[in-house]
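Batch job 17 of 40 flagged for manual review because the log was empty.
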Amino acid sequence: QVQVVESGGGLVQPGGSLRLSCAASGSIFRIYAMGWYRQAPGKQRELVAGITSGGSTNYADSVKGRFTISRDNAKNVFLQMNSLKPEDTAVYYCNADLMVADSLNRLDAWGQGTLVTVSS
């Protein structure tokens, strides 16, 4: 069984910062990439930032220069969010593109999400 768990959301004022954390655990043979997505009320889920096993990163245009994705090992990733704006308010989800150890099946694993609210 595979689990993806996010933490670090909360309420922050415009211009403030938050750091989200994500940990993947369980029967994992290999993680190809991990990423952060967000879904605002009434909108579709969108990619915020991604990082591959080789360390390559990509960002949505709306967060470039403000958000940074990083990792400390193959299973933990972080999203440092600076200069937050009200339009960054959303539920943030962590995603792991991985291979399950016992079946060797490819799996797109999602966390439950963590709410980020940017408001004064």
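Reviewer: the log was empty due to a logging misconfiguration, but the result itself is present. The first strand starts at residue 2 and ends at 7. Unflagging and moving on to job 18.
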